[in-house]
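Ticket #4471: complex job returned nothing on first submit. Input attached below:
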Amino acid sequence: MASLSDIGNLKHLYLDEIEPGEATTAPAFLIQASAQVLNERCDRNWVPVIVKETGKDQYQVIGNSFVYAVAEEAGLERVWCVVADDSKEAAEVARVLSGEEIPRINLSKASRDEITAALRYLIELPDSALKRVKLPTATNRIDEAPRQYWNTLDPIANLKCGITRGKKLKALQSVFYLTPQPMPDVITDPAILKSLTATELKKMAKKRGITGYSKMKKADLVNTLSE
Amino acid sequence: MTSETDLQAALLKLPDDAPEAVVSETFFASYVLDALGFSKSNGEVIPQFDSGRGAADYAVRRNIGEDIFLHTRNNPYMICELKGRDINLEEGSAQYKRAVQQLHKKYLLAPKCKSAQWGLLTNSCHIQLFRKHNKVIHPATPCLKISPETIDRAIKSIRQKIENPVKALTIAVYNNKGGVGKTTTTVNLASILALAKKKVLVVDFDPNQQDLTSALGIPLSDGQVYAALNERNTNIKDAIQRYVPPLKKTAEYDLGFDVLPADKVMVHDIDEAELLKEWKNHTLHEKLAELKDTYDYILIDSPPNWRVFSQQALYAADVVLIPTKHNNIFSLENAVTVIRDFVPQVQSIKGDASPIALPIFFNAGRVTPYQLQEAQKALIEMIKQAKRAQEGKPKFDLQPYFFPRYTNSRKDLHIFQLPSYANIANAAFARIPAVYRDKSAREYYISLAKEYFLHG
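Support reply: We reran it on our side without changes. The output follows.
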């Protein structure tokens, strides 16, 4: 027996049964001109809208909202849609694959090549805030930093690779997310220790039972802890 | 008639249209791997090895004492990619190219195959061995045709190679156009590799200019290098000099690298016609072979022409690194000549399918978007021209050498760029490679090393 579920099926749905969901940000020209092309050529949207079912005869757009906007502009009564399941994951995949959302990568685990690609993408965007950032420098510094422990992207501003707090750091948030590992109790790698603040180092020294830590300078703390 | 060997028998039994599963089961896993010295029953063979980017057909490694490969499943030594007889693996065919791409990009460079030193590709009609040195993959044998008469010899030669791995990767830095930064690239790349704790030898094989030797402030060799190359019983090690950058901090760790300096005798006293009488194609290659277990990298700086020194350098090399300038059309056209004419010439006399050209890179100051576009246009035009057979020249696919990231579904036209700027050039006056003096120079050359040679 065929499944009764509509998930995965191509449906010819009435436009007025579909909620627009998150609206497209495409410029009016693209929508109007595309609508004209659609009207003049065949009146069938060969690229479907991705929707989820929200109730009986009720749907909501989760991907290709541009196509929805064009169908609306073109005055179509019904539009071809693919029904996806109602989950957060499906919504994200639909938006990412339809190019309406920038996918993000996990900076805690990303490889060097992935970091290069992400930074290059940001740098090459039109009017990018990162236009003057040097790709090799930024890649090397970020790749070699102890990013597996970072809770935020803020430490990047301290790497002296041209990415400062504010607009530039914010741009990175559009491509990176973090799933930090808990900081181990004993770290002896001086490179990692150097990237921490003096306060954090002092906390660590206290835990390790080192005496006299409260008066130490950061360099001394790093030396003592790395032994 | 002599009795046939197991391998011959297995090959003869294969049907003409054997699909991948049959080749894999009744031929490769049962006989070839055994003949290569990997024992299935002792757990040295893993089928469907999880490379981290999909399952490779076979991964193999000798057991090390208690460390049974089948149990620990780590540090594979060789990755094997099998095809059926329906796939044509003749060198140059589209299916061959696709299979090689798959073996290289998907498996050999996958996260769990970093330790692999070899890749083997076969469909039981052809077989080819590739060597992987860190991130660099180059052919170790030509694509050999297998027949009952040749199979034993082919497998024996492959076994001989994988049982005697060579430590060093030999890189010729070459473009027959001058002024593209060959010497600067060689010196700085050597320094970066040395900083990454690799043992490096630099060969100044441009005796007319001697730029590299003088850039490092090393005295020219007075006949020692010439003698080592010319006479059978001299040791080339005696001609090697150590370069240690004159920095305050050197004591901390041993920076620096070895240099085989330019020889003044080769310029003043002997002309090239003389050298041609004494030397054979493989003279430098064979002399360097003695050093290949001492070093991780041997870099050869070669002169901007196609005469005896460059020919020796290319013959000695596993890979050829070609610096170009984005705003100099001649440097790009000359790169085409190197890739399309010189490298294949050397390959054909050398016979083991090396050296191969690495993708070109731009070694030049700030590249404006307009200049980049123009350079890309010029390169695309060259690719188009090379795709058509011209008089006397066969078709040639230049794309992987210009746009290594370009695939049928991705129009990725990025070319690696090395910004050269005042500091890098000025460092030559101080007789110290720029990467020791300048932080940004170091970052740039680290990127170069990681783009081509080192795992990220």
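Chain A touches chain B at residues 111-113, 120, 134-137, 139-141, 143 (CB under 8 Å). Closing as resolved unless it happens again.
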